[in-house]
Amino acid sequence: GAQAGPGFSLQQPQDKVSVAVGETFTLRCTTSADAGPGPVRWLKGWGSGSKTIYDQKIKEPFSRVTRVVEKSNTDFTIHIRNFQPDDAGTYYCVKFVKGKTGENEVFQHGSGTEVSIRETALVPGMVAAAVVLCFLILLLLGLFVALCMYRRKHQGGVGSLCPARTVAMGSFSSVPLRCCAGTPGTPSEVLDAESSHLPSQQSSKEENDIHYADLQPLPPAPWRGRSPGTAPTEYASLRVAAK
């Protein structure tokens, strides 16, 4: 079988290593000076599913893997750059020697180093920024709700600009007058008749004006043909810009 020099030993001191994504991590492995012929390799995993991460006999460097001490025959510590989630697993430092068949056979290996992902901790500055951001969001939400309530209250009060009016017409009972938007049969029909005599130069803006009539009794005046006991009346038209 596989043989190595007498007194050979291999040390892999790390049991576990926690690494954040993107960081460089180190895997440590040393051997005694009495190493026999055969390479030292780093393997990820063990058995048929293992993968070679570093091989002492391969001159071309492995991707993201470098030796800490180049060309050393006793220190096989390596750096692995830009840690990714797929790099998590157990790594073994393994000494191979030539067997009788000429193939490399496992002679000795370390107990394995378990590499896991470390969650990046939030620094106090990031926590403070998150708190301020939440406060600003709540403040903006409160202002938005207050604005909506103000607009609803303001729009609800527009109707008060055109309250029903009650006027006295001589000896007649009080008659309520509604806005010009009233239904047929209301005093607003009088306004429609009056508006037909207005000048034709009215703009589209004036068409949106609100009209209402207020009947007021006029003082007695000589009027030929007037029936006794009656008081003449007139009405006036007012325009209020609609909002």
From TrEMBL:
Keyword Electron transport: no
Signal sequence residues: none
InterPro entries for the chain: Ig-like_CS_Receptor (IPR051755), Ig-like_dom (IPR007110), Ig-like_dom_sf (IPR036179), Ig-like_fold (IPR013783), Ig_sub (IPR003599), Ig_V-set (IPR013106)
Chain ranges passing through the membrane: 126-150
Region described as Disordered: 190-243
UniProt KW keywords: Disulfide bond, Glycoprotein, Immunoglobulin domain, Membrane, Signal, Transmembrane, Transmembrane helix
Domain Ig-like, first and last residues per copy: 6-93
PANTHER family hit by this protein: SIGNAL-REGULATORY PROTEIN BETA
Name under which the protein is recorded: SIRB1 protein
